Amino acid sequence: MKRLIYGSQATADLGPDQLIDLLAKARASNEQNGLSGMLLYCSQSFLQVLEGDEDALAETYQRIRADRRHTNLRLLLDAEVSQRLFPDWSMGFDHVDDDELAEELPGYTPATLYPLMNPDLITNGKVAETLLTLYAKNKVR
Ligand code: FAD
């Protein structure tokens, strides 16, 4: 089983209807493909973790990469794992606001243009994984 994390920049600010539509389709497809994960959206940028069977993951990531709703994808983690971090979710989601992110992520500056994409802020997959797990736990609470 593999885990993959990437950051990307939305090509336009997505409204609630667009996010709901994106998530509904992603969840249906992930369920069918046995994938789980979590998606964060903040200040027009995405951070997503996906985990599951290698082939299903590669096929889905290819579709995601081709999606014109975002650009500048930066792969932060591509690792073989033995356990899922998000076993219950076909795709967890949080629309994070700037203040909240500033509390969770030391060094975060709300004025930063693309915070979840900023290479100085999220330097590797482990930092991204910790952040995504933190938001997943907050949601469950
Ligand atoms: P189609 O539905 O045929 O669409 C083709 C292209 O049209 C897309 O690439 C996109 O550029 C555009 N498009 C499609 N729908 C819309 C829309 N409502 N508004 C504007 N443009 C649109 N898919 C998953 O299966 N699992 C995921 O976990 C997942 N996560 C995603 C995370 C992000 C941040 C984004 C932006 C997309 C995600 N998707 C996910 C959606 C994925 O990128 C594909 O759009 C989807 O899987 C359908 O693929 P398709 O080839 O059938 O595309």
Short description:
It is built from four helices and five strands, in the order E-H-E-E-H-E-E-H-H. It has 141 residues and is of the alpha+beta class.
Report what the structure shows.
This protein starts with a strand and ends with a helix. The protein is of the alpha+beta class and 141 residues long. It has helices at 16-33, 54-65, 98-104, 125-140; strands at residues 2-10, 36-42, 45-52, 70-80, 92-95. It is globular and about 35 Å long. The structure holds flavin-adenine dinucleotide (FAD). Flavin-adenine dinucleotide is lined by residues 21-22, 25-26, 29-30, 39, 46, 48, 50, 60, 63-64, 66-70, 91.
What form results from the Cα inertia axes?
A: globular
Total number of β-strand segments? 5
Runs in which pLDDT lies below 50 for 5 or more consecutive residues are none
Cα end-to-end separation: 27 Å
